[in-house]
Every structure is written in C-alpha cells, then in structure tokens.
C-alpha cells in the first residue's frame, strides 16, 4: 500500500497569508501617516469640543506665547483666566445656545489664528527691519490676540522719557497697520512702563508717559488708514501690569500692547425674552 505524504504546511498555510496581509496593511498605514499633515488648529478645536462635552475643566488655562531671540523667557506661561462659570456646563449635551456660542468662538479662534499668521508674515516681509522685528511678540490669549512691542536691553523703541517713538519704531508700526486693518477686529492699545529708580519731573510720571506712548501708536495706525471707529480703548498702565513681575526693572516690561478684542457673540432673539 502506498504511504500518504503529510502536507508541507501542516494545515496552517492560511497563517502565512494572514501575516503577509497584516504586513501590507501596516506598511499602507505607515505610508498614509508619512504623507499626511496635521492641522494644529483643527486638532485644538477638536480637543476643546471634547473637553466641553465631558464637563467642566477645573484647571487654569494658560495662554501661548511666541518667544523670539533677544527677549527673556518667562519662568512660566502667562496666566490667562479661569473658565467663566456661565461658559461651563456639567452636562455632556449642550443646548442650542451653547452650541451656537461654541460655534461662534470657534470662528473667532480661526480668525485670530489667521490674524496672527498675517502679522507674522508682515514681520518676515520686512528685511530692512529684521532687527526691529525682534522686539515684537505675538500672543494668543483667551480674550483675543496681543501684539507686544517691547524694549530690549540697550535698544529701546522710544527715547527715554519721550512719548514719540524712534523712526524705526514708527516704520514697524506702519508695517503692522496693514494686517491689523484687514482683521476687522476692534483694537485696544495699552502703554506700559517698567519700574524705575530715576525720578520723573514734577507733575509728569509713568501714568502720563505710558498713556501718551499708547496714543502715539494710535495716531500712527490712524495715519496708515486704520479707522478711528475700531479703537476700543487707549490707556496707560504705568508699571502695574508687568510682563515679568519677578524682575520689575527689566527693559522688556516697557512695552506697547496692541490687542485685538474678542467680542461676545450676539444673543439669539428667542433668548432675549
């Protein structure tokens, strides 16, 4: 009687095919991952939606900041604000008003991101003022977008004790006026001084100086076509809102803050009654 030969794969030939298929799938997904690009803005919106959907966030939000060469780095990110109780919800399913508010905030977040990108592009497109552009910090906050024009050690943006900017500072503000005007947001300008050991002249102090510098920036922006109606406020804060509280005398505390204001979304008509 002829003897039957055993199968070469012992009945497990399907496993080799399955392993080959898995290897091909892994290679396919690796290729997709290598070719794909992540949209950081969309990722942040998705993360924010998930956070809002699963309840109240008890941790404090912190704002991001873009540090540039020549400026000191903060020991920690600037504290923005706690989440207002009226914007937080303990229910995983927000009502229609909450959804409308989230949608409006998302549109504003995208608009502020575009504004920040256009401002950074304006700084990159001015090679003749490359050194001066290092004085600018663009900071996205919970309330909008801040453009900080700060002093550096040995290189100020305003003459000491004067409210009129240097010519290089004026040209920088003129260059920023174009993207600022295009955003359509309302603008607030705030002047700040650092703590100083040099006494001011009688009747004139850091409050007057910081306010006059803010108005000098406003006048420059208006001369470049920014409408007067978009200005939300022009104020001087002296040295009460330091950028670096741990070192009140550091030059970077002397700055002008141009803020794009995030306004509250309109209340739907049916919720006004």
Automatic annotation (TrEMBL):
Single GO cellular component term: plasma membrane
Region (Disordered): 73-103
Keywords: Cell membrane, Membrane, Transmembrane, Transmembrane helix
Ranges that cross the membrane: 12-35
PROSITE patterns: OMPA_2
Keyword Membrane recorded: yes
Protein's membrane topology: Single-pass membrane protein
Domain of life per record: Bacteria
Gene3D superfamilies: OmpA-like domain (3.30.1330.60)
The keyword Transport is annotated on this UniProt entry: no
Localization in the cell: Cell membrane
Signal peptide from the UniProt entry: none
InterPro entries hit by this protein: Bact_OuterMem_StrucFunc, MotB-like_N_dom, OmpA-like, OmpA-like_sf
Domain OmpA-like span(s) in chain numbering: 145-264
The protein, known as: OmpA-like domain-containing protein
Organism ancestry: Bacteria, Pseudomonadati, Pseudomonadota, Alphaproteobacteria, Hyphomicrobiales
